[in-house]
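Service request form, structural biology core

Requester: graduate student, group of Dr. S.
Request type: structure prediction, single chain
Budget code: on file
Notes: please return the result as structure tokens.

Sequence provided:
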Amino acid sequence: MSTILSTARIALATLLLSASALPVFAGAADYEFQPVKTELPTGPESEFAVKIIDKRTGQPVADAVIFETRLDMAPDGMEAMTSKVDALPAEEPGVYRFKLNLSMAGGWRFQMAAKIQGEEETAQGEVILKAGD
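Core staff response, request fulfilled:
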């Protein structure tokens, strides 16, 4: 009986040690969306940029696929007031650029969802902007 218990303990210890050696994968919460600037001029041609940062390394995340964006005036209590967002070509790795139509001065919320290479979960971020003249 003690031989069976000893064998079971060794097997369990081996299993636990090998499990701790498995690679740890990141999740959606391991990414941060940082605005390059938060104060923008009003108008249909406002340019906005967001950096996606891997919190574990502090490095920008290149080649993410941005598949959903939303721009609204939720900070000013007007969530139903949405506006157009157009993607612009990237100028540097990890920085994602957009053309926004900030039709009026005030607070705007920019939301985005990104698929990051090698991640199963979708990373989502939200940035609050201030549009003024």
